[in-house]
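Justification of resources, computational component.

The compute hours requested in this renewal are based largely on the per-chain cost of generating structure records like the one below. Each record pairs the submitted sequence with a full structure-token output. That output is archived, and it is also reused by downstream analysis tasks.
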Amino acid sequence: MSYDLYIGDRTFSSWSLRGWLMLEKFGLPHRAHLVGLYDGTFHSDLAQLTPARLVPVLRTPDGMVIGETLAMAETLNERHPDAGMWPADPEARALARWLSAEMHAGFGGLRSACPMQLLHQYQGFVVSDAVRADLDRVEQLWALARDRHGAGGPWLFGTYSLADVFFAPVAARIAGYDLPVSDAARAYVAHVLADPTFRQWRAMGLVKTYDPVPYAMDLPSRGWPGPQVLPAKPVTAQTSENPSCPYSGEPVTDFMELDGRVFGFCNPFCRDKTVNDPEAWPQFMALP
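The structure output for this chain reads:
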């Protein structure tokens, strides 16, 4: 049986990113349902999920409704003790919970001044004292986790854990506003941006366009600082190399071109998320 996850717009909803990562990164079956943050349907979309009033919201296979990402994380950890969601070492696990709880409750200066956006990187953002203080605290916590428990890999506690889930939107903010951080922190941000699962979330978010763009700033911008994306484009075609969609297995109806080759998908969303970042999708990359 599968979880149902109700999320806001992927390009902007930092809390929704957390909810999705804790299911996707640990292999927990789920279906995502998009709630209309900017479409005027937000409250009606959540009406069936009382008493939820924010996204994300999780509904368990047995019908229990859970709001707030910290509660979701602990519930999933209880239900899936073998998934390795928190570090196995008790000291590391306690610190990971501490860091995640502090992220969940604090860092108001960074949150308010730098809303998460995954479109581009702003240039010339002026860092206030409040944002600088939050960045200093983020660096302190990241360095502490890495120094004490990060020897086993590139993530905060070596291997991927819920602590990385909770700080993924922080890494996105640092990237999206080109915030001044140390080389060590910048390396961690780059690792988050290069993670295929994070890239998939961003690619799906870019399928939807906005006019006006939420949280837009009157600043110059340049391309998103993540890995360079392969140059794919949607095309009108009658045939493709693959007769069935690499994701669903259904017959193809929509097409894209990559390196002069045409590939097919079962709907525009499957095509467009692939156009936005082909290498983020192993099912697709198995074709070319």
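The first helix runs from residue 14 to 24. The chain has a mean pLDDT of 97.
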